[in-house]
Description:
Blueprint: E1 2-5, E2 17-21, H1 29-44, E3 48-55, H2 58-62, H3 74-83, E4 88-93, H4 96-99, H5 103-114, E5 117-123, H6 136-146, E6 149-153, E7 157-158, E8 161-162, H7 165-173, H8 177-184, E9 188-195, H9 200-204, E10 209-213, E11 223-231, E12 234-243, E13 254-259, E14 270-280, H10 288-305
Parallel strand pairs: 1-4, 2-3, 2-5, 3-4, 5-6
Antiparallel strand pairs: 7-8, 9-10, 9-14, 10-13, 11-12, 11-14, 12-13
Amino acid sequence: MKVIYNNEFNEFNGQRTAIAIGSFDGIHRGHQAVINKTKEIAKKNNLEPAVFSFEPHPRQVLSSSHIPGFITSPKQKIKLLTDLNVEYYFCQEFTKSFAKKDFEEFVKNTLHKSLNIGHIIVGEDFSFGRGGNGNIEDLKALGNKYDFSVTPLNIVNNHGEKISSTKIRHLISRGEIDEVKNLLGRYYTMAGEVIHGDARGSKLGFPTANLSLNTDYVLPAKGVYAGYVNYNGNRLRGVANFGHNPTFTVDEYRIEIFIIDLNKNLYGEKLEFSLVKYIRPEKKFDDEASLIKAINQDVLYSKKFLC
């Protein structure tokens, strides 16, 4: 997949495109359905399948007072789109000035003239323009004017409910990891860099990697999770505590990962943690012996569950 940023749009000289347009935070199963439909339409009409999305997420720019956490980082988004076999990813920088842009001008100059669009695929709730006042019928009218077709697509439902990034965020924040995986089609994965902590884990016999996240991810419910650690292309078993470690009254929210299958100093290293199973909530233990016993049980459970 070729990633093309908006400062390079005018240089695009590929054949006509079928483009899925949206924010695509999470690339959940609903998004995947839109993208797969795009590939199907592209193949049928001899077009190149592409995705047009935004960075940063529009809510970061338009709703600065309440910015929701994110399900994927920009790097993860590119990786997921690559895995979906999209030919092009057109990445538009989203700014306040872009948000005020006249949509017909955008369709004419960017989609029609620069990106050689032949077909647009959007979710059925798609809106556009200043304040989101434009709808799919407006987009179809512009298609008649600038020679492209439009396909609105129902978002894939799960048990009769619409799949949405908002719903997935709520599930993550409640620790409902099984349902998150069902809606995403994969484990929820957070990426970051290992930083120095208090070294308490080593003293307890369970050295942990303290993860500093590289994106403002949605934070899961506080507690202990079994999961997989992706380090240098290897998938390792791990147990992670998300929260404030109440036994030691830690002030800041921390992510402390004990990697079952690796004993190595990872300071400064990059890794990912995929949440697989919620084990238990955070708990304040009366003494270190009780805490060590609980951690041993968490590790034993995770070893069996992640076999």
